[in-house]
Amino acid sequence: MAKPGNLAIDGADPRIYDQINRMSAEREAAGQEPMGTIDQSSVGATNVTHRRHREHDPSVTFEQYHYFALQTRAEEDAQPKTGYETTIWSLFFPSKSDGIATRTESSEKRDGEAAGRMVVTDEEWINASRALRTATRGAIFYLITTDILGPFGLPYAFATMGWGPGIALFTVFAALAIYSGFLLWEPFMGLDSYEYPIRSFGDLGYRLYGRWMRHLINILQSVQLLLNVGLIVISNGEALSQVVKFRLCFVVCCLIWAIVGFLVGQIRTLQKFGWLANAAVWINLICMFITMGGAAHGGPNYAGTASSAGASISGGALITPNAQGVFPPVQTSGSLPDTGSFIGSVGGAMQAIFAYGGSMVFPEFMAEMKRPKDFLTAMWAAQAFIYFWYMFYGLFLYGYQGQYTVNPSYLGISNYGIQTAGNVFAMISAVIAACLYGNIGLKVMYNNVFVELFNAPALTTRAGKWMWVAVIPVYWTIAFVLAAGIPNFSGLTSVVAAFCILHFTYTFPPLLSIAYLVKKSAMREGDGYDPVTGQVTRGDSGFGRFRRGFMSSSRWWMNSLNVLYIGGALALSALGAYASIMTLKSAFQTSVTTSFVCKSPLDG
């Protein structure tokens, strides 16, 4: 089963070296000739055996990637499936007995080359790469639903958009997210291989657009993960302040979770916590059911009205108590509520987009799969699961709490016992998510900034392990300071959605799809890669080749649709960015305090 800690390691995956050493030991124990071994203390960031095995080699062409991808897909299709793997139950209950993808080793080995203290042949590298792909579609279903953190912002989204627009937009976002998953899956299937494995979203961008796209994707991915960690610190701080009945300074509540991050972040790989990460989806569901029960059997948490959706509707009139201290009744709207401008409604739309932030690591999930072809069914099932439960939860809470809905929604329950139960489960789930996001986020940043630009030691070395220990507190401190310095939680989540999540879910997938389809469709008879000579043949180049690929008889309509899709995504991103910035600007102008205070934002 795939482990979250294995994901998003941009660069040569250190598990390949571990796998080669393990396979070598097994062969030697069986009396066979051992494979080349690797001392990880000598492995640097780019210290790999063959040039063609480097993760980002500009000399490797699209035709080469595509040729080896077709060979890999054919081999995966030839792998026998168990009867259980073909049933619907394998999606929800992955079998523990699923073995790894294997292949009979070729009797004719290629010559190995020395690199530092390792000697590994091409065949050994390929076998090690192949053996790492162990995840089934059931594992991917859990990883996708675990990764996405959006349910607790949806009631707030419906409160700022109303029943009709909220349902319509969330449905459209769900359909487009499913389409985007397909747009990421198709290029992955056509470019990933055992010889040239794709490890991350950035790898996919690199093979289709070049180094600049990889850097752009990695920067946005790092920013999103950093801010996600900060959001978790603040939301858990708010939950803890409620649990202790505001008797503990709010900034201390947040600082406690930052310190927890210092400790859990010292785990470099989360392989042993895979079962815990899978349990997070059920913990989230329990928290949702508890919150719905609390909302149905008690009134809203009036002490937190300043953070509610009603604060941006009708100038706050719907949450202002009368002279006797009685708050207005719960109200809902079938259409867009009167927010005074479109900013509040766009901010609500950003909360709905936040629910589909998992696309950012879809390529990493596919890289873990024994059969990436099965990703589509796992993704479709996960998105359907998310759509149904998130929609049901969001509408339920909005119906009972209306304009008093806060973000995250479990903080809006008035009954202390139910409120505490929900907060405890939410905090547990958030800590698991923090482990996942902090681990991946720092690895992306470390490998792409420290290793690549500043020649820092690789994480597989002793020096790299000590470096990891040192940078973890710095990473969590930055996340905490950034999030705590912003006085509006929903404004911060809108910023993350507009600048990062929206692009990974709705902008990058069609952009990558266009490049892949154009390059693939432009290939004519006689074009391609010759494995015998190692030569690549192209009949033409330039704009004429691009036009032929774009206007391909079979996919011109899809390319045209994707151009419109990109334009719409960029326009929505611009609106979301403007709305979130104006929301934060308003929060600062009205002297709303930051999180560096003792009084909790939920305490009146």
Compose a concise summary of this entry:
With 604 residues, the protein is mostly helical. The chain contains 19 helices and four strands.
List keywords for this structure.
604 residues; mainly alpha; Amino acid/polyamine transporter I; two-stranded antiparallel ribbon; 19 helices; 4 strands; globular; Amino acid transporter transmembrane domain-containing protein; AA_transpt_TM; membrane; transmembrane
Across the major sheet, the strand order is 1-2
Query: Structural class per helix/strand content?
Result: mainly alpha
Radius of gyration, in Å, reads 25 Å
User: Uncertain segments of ≥5 residues (pLDDT<50)?
Assistant: 1-12, 35-53, 97-119
Number of domains: 1
Query: Based on CA inertia axes, which overall geometry fits?
Result: globular
Number of strands: 4
- H/E topology pattern: HHHEEHHHHHHHHHHHHHHEEHH
- CATH fold annotation: Amino acid/polyamine transporter I
Total helices: the number is 19
CATH class: Mainly Alpha
Oligomer: single chain
Membrane topology: Multi-pass membrane protein
Pfam families: Aa_trans
Family: Belongs to the amino acid/polyamine transporter 2 family.
Subcellular location: Membrane
